[in-house]
Amino acid sequence: MTAAIAFSPAAGLASADPVTSALATTTCSYAQVTAAMAAQAPDLAGLLTSHSNMQTKLQQFLALPINQRQQAIAQQQAANPQMDQMITRAIGPQGAQEMIQVASTCRSY
Question: Among 17, 21, 23, 97, which one is most buried in terms of CB atoms within 10 A?
Answer without folding.
Answer: 23
